[in-house]
Amino acid sequence: MTQKIVAVAGVSGVGKSSFIKKLSDDFPVQHLQASSLIREGARIRDLESIGQDFLRELDIDENQALLVLGFERLKDKSSFVVLDCHTVIDTPGGLVPISPSVFRAVGVAHLLVLTDDAEVIEARRRGDKERSRPIRTSSEIFDYQLNSVIQGYNISQEIGVPLTVCKIEHARSLDFIWS
After folding, report:
1. What is the pTM of this model?
2. H or E element: which one contains 18?
């Protein structure tokens, strides 16, 4: 079987990581998180010694270059590699779209954008004490999510891959992506 790389995107707090962990119970997938890949890319470039806080200060393009470098290093020969990522990053300066070239560079074959009700995401983000996320209202999260879906469409069109947009509670029914 040919290796397939699926990008699972969505706003921070939608439940991407939890979904992928549950998915791996039913399907043999390698789960790669964008943040871990960026840290691996920094390690390869010997930037880790300058600290995680500095990495947050790098511009989005530099972080995405590190992500691609880390992806190439950590990707195994699994039939399915699932990239846990974003199409838009929520920064203090506003929403920043991720370039389609990043998705092309890692060989994404399908893009899945997970969504949920903005109020549910807001509550999930508030309740998550393990992560440091910007505080956003449900209205701001709604706009963030809409931009995430639109950028997902732009990415899929530019690199020529299928796009599936799905509410997270229905995502388990998407067997056609994994088979």
Report:
1. 0.90
2. helix 16-26
